[in-house]
Amino acid sequence: MKVLVTCPPMLGLMDEFKPLFAAKGIEIYCPQVVQTLSVDELKILVPKFDGWIIGDDPANEEVFKAGRAGNLKAAVKWGVGVDNVDFAAAKALDVPVSNTPRMFGAEVADIAMGYVIALARQTFKIDRAVREGQWLKPAGISLAAKTVALIGFGDIGRNTAKRLLAADMKVITYDPYYQPVKELETVGVATWPERLDEADFIIVTCALTDENRHMVNSNILARTKAGVRIINVARGPLIDEVALIEHLRSGQVHSVALDVFEDEPLPVTSELRNFENCIFGTHNSSNTVDAVRRASDKAIELLFGFLGIK
Fold first, then answer.
1. Same domain, 245 and 171
2. Count of the separate structural domains present in the chain
3. Which end of the chain is less enclosed by CB atoms within 10 A, N or C?
4. What is the pLDDT of residues 80-110, one digit of tens each?
């Protein structure tokens, strides 16, 4: 059997996982992937393999049809987010697919909390200045008693809330599927976008769906407290970047920390690059050695199960 792996974090530690495949007599192929492969590239590659461990690639109907016309028997979406995978198409084509849920809640929450501190105290700006020979001392804001609008209360959202409460911050969460958690009982619950004008920070941790695309848009940003700080560790299209740029320019939004973007990698022409108050990531908030091992082991286990490999 042959397996294709297109997930960059897993590819980065592939030498650790190769023996698991070799022990089962499975040949693996690891293409060079910066973020994702294109639909055209996948339509050529996927049919050659029995199994596929998917990263953030466009695993759409076209790709699954091409794969099913070839050798593809099963796939696993590495990680939590599934907005790039057409599960309905896979099911119709009789290609079993699963993700690896609840793998990165703590890791992504760590980055979210790090971004909160960085935006509050402008540590990134100080670092840049020192490197340029300057001795910058900007006045930040304290975290205690500040309010966070936390979008999403799944694994990542709950872990983020834990960290925010430890910093004596107030948390209001927005999640249509909200379930109370005993140790997080002080978290407030609201219906989006009620009480948004109370928030000093907005943190996006929810999954991307057709319904919530651009949920943070111009109308929403106009309702926020002036000088709000925004963090996105979920999916880029949850925020309308054109609207975000407009409100950064006006000062309604003080600064943003984005690990994800509408187009990835961030285009060199993006106006977001013009704002010195902002911090950018590379869709990398889940990427720790420990988490990659955990998610990769789970992905391999699931794929072997689908392929009937014991």
1. yes
2. 2
3. C
4. 989 999 999 999 999 999 999 999 999 999 9
Residues 217 and 276 in one domain: yes
Query: What pLDDT sits at residue 310?
Result: 87
DSSP letter string over 98-121? EE--SSSHHHHHHHHHHHHHHHHH
Q: Looking at residue 93, which CATH number applies to its domain?
A: 3.40.50.720
Task: Kindly list the catalytic residues.
Answer: 235, 264, 283
Q: What is the pTM of this model?
A: 0.92
Q: Give yes or no: residues 55 and 109 share one domain.
A: no
Q: What are phi and psi of 292, to 5 degrees?
A: -65, -40
